[in-house]
Design goal:
This protein is an alpha+beta fold and 157 residues long. The chain contains three helices and eight strands. A hairpin with a 5-residue loop joins β1 (2-3) and β2 (9-10).
């Protein structure tokens, strides 16, 4: 005949129904024994999960994801400013590409000839040093003698 896990027996003529349990007793299944360290880790993980910020419409996760296109395997370093408004990409062709990720534009200083004509004692001289018409989202910085393997931003500026 046929035996169930709870000890009942059936004859060969009567087959068990589809819904009836046909598994070994739970005491026959070897369960892993957790070590004290594993139990502490699970307890700590549960506590951290309980302290985690609950996400809702007012508290959304902060995600920053950008893709640099057409680098042709020349990208050798990358850094993001602390406020996530600037991205610096060090390139194998000895340049640094600076990308503005906010709505503001990157501007350059006026040429040397234009700067010579400014009065350095004037109060508003710093505003007139910048060339407003040079505003773009990306600037390319030149001057390295080899590939740029590291880029970073000053965290205090």
């Amino acid at each position: 005949g046929f035996s169930f896990s709870d000890g009942r027996r059936m004859s060969k003529r009567k087959r068990p129904c589809l819904g009836e349990a046909q598994h070994p007793l739970s005491t026959r299944i070897p369960l892993p024994v957790f070590r004290e360290r594993e139990l502490q880790f699970k307890s700590m993980a549960a506590k951290e999960l309980a302290r985690a910020v609950r996400l809702d419409a007012r508290r959304l996760p902060s995600v920053c994801f950008f893709t640099l296109l057409n680098t042709h395997s020349a990208l050798s370093s990358l850094s993001l400013s602390a406020d996530s408004t600037l991205l610096a990409a060090g390139m194998a062709d000895s340049t640094v590409r600076l990308h503005c990720l906010s709505s503001q534009k990157l501007k350059t200083m006026k040429s040397y000839d234009e700067l010579r004509t400014l009065d350095s004692t004037d109060i508003g001289v710093m505003e007139r040093v910048i060339d407003e018409q040079s505003a773009t989202n990306t600037k390319q910085l030149l001057g390295h003698s080899g590939p740029v393997y590291s880029t970073s931003f000053d965290p205090f500026n």
